[in-house]
Structure formats: structure tokens, C-alpha cells
Amino acid sequence: MSIWAIIPVKPLSRAKSRLADVLAPHEREVLAETLFRRVVTVVKSVPAIAGTLVISRDTRVLSIARDLGVNTVQESGTPELNNALMRATQVVKGWRGEAVLVLPADLPLVAAEDVMEIIALGKEDMSVVIATDYHQDGTNAMLTRPPGLIPYAYGAGSFERHMKLAQEVGADVTVYRSERLALDIDTPADLEDYYRLTGVNRGQLFPTGTPLGE
Prior knowledge:
Elements (H helix, E strand, L loop, with lengths): L2 E6 L16 H20 L4 E8 L2 H9 L3 E4 L6 H14 L4 E4 L9 H10 L5 E6 L6 E7 L12 H11 L3 E4 L12 H11 L3 H4 L9
Parallel strand pairs: 1-2, 1-4, 2-3, 5-7
Antiparallel strand pairs: 4-6, 5-6
């Protein structure tokens, strides 16, 4: 079975805007790149993943992705996540992919075990497996088999929308619960959770960083 991971990535210079009160611009870029590299590395370690496709309009992101040995698609037109994901999914379908796993680029705790368990849960045709966040609001991972089974509906409240869309097409829907996948870093509180859960402190993450405001 041919399963592809799709990782959408915002331009690093515009990443993590909600952390502007606690991180300087270059620190937000460092954080976004660090998380992105980690997600790609984890996905690449899973033998069941046939390939990884990164989609972004940021040429630096695409260069990093190619250096990490994964495929890329450059996003064009008006920035819109759902359209970009559908474009990437069509590319995977053209490569005869049988399923796609969409993962955000900002999951600091994602592990290979999570990816493998999601794949195992979505092994049958007409399957959708969804992992949400701590608030059961967003979609922090989603596997669809076959690719394009449902339209993408990312944004606030996407978990419920994706569940409804999957049910409407008669898919076998499974919610994957994972403490690791429940954390994404969008807010200062998320960042504090990351520090607490990993034991990493600000000085380790940004060893050459300039204090905010300087």
C-alpha cells in the first residue's frame, strides 16, 4: 500500500504570529524551522510511508525539504491552506498514492508510533482517521483513504467539520487520541507546555537569540 505524508508549511518569516508577545521575529522563525525539520524526520523514519510531500510558497522551506530528501510542490496563487492541500493531494493521486496523511509542521511531540498507529487504523478503503488538539477544535493529523475522499476544511473548528464530511460520504471514521499529537504550538501557553513536557528551555531552543524588544 502506498501512503504519502503531506506537510503544508507557511513561510517561515510569517510563522507563529500569535507568539509575537513572547518571541522575537527571528526566534519565531527558528522555532518554526526546528519544528518543521522534526516532523519531516519523524515521518521519514516510518517504513510504511512511501514518500513525503512538502507544499509551501516559501522557497527556503522547499530548499530545506529537498535537503532532507523529500518531495516538494510550490504553492502559488492566493494563500489558502485547503486549496494547497487539495493540490498536493492531486499530485499524490497522480503518483498512484492509495492514502494521504496530512500533518502540520508544528507538532513538537509527534512520534513514529503515532504515524504507525494512524496508518493501522486507516488500512481499509473509505477510511478517515483524525487526531485533534487538546481543545478538540483543530485537526492535528488526518489520514484519508483514498486520497481526496473528502474536501479539506482546515481552520477554526476543523475537527467537527472533517468528522461531518467523512460521515457524509459514508467513510469509516476513527478518532485517534494522542497526548503527543494534541499539542501544537500556536499560543504562549502552548509554548510553555512544550518547555514543560520536553524539558527544553528558551536558552536551549534559542541559544543565540536576542531578547525580545532588542
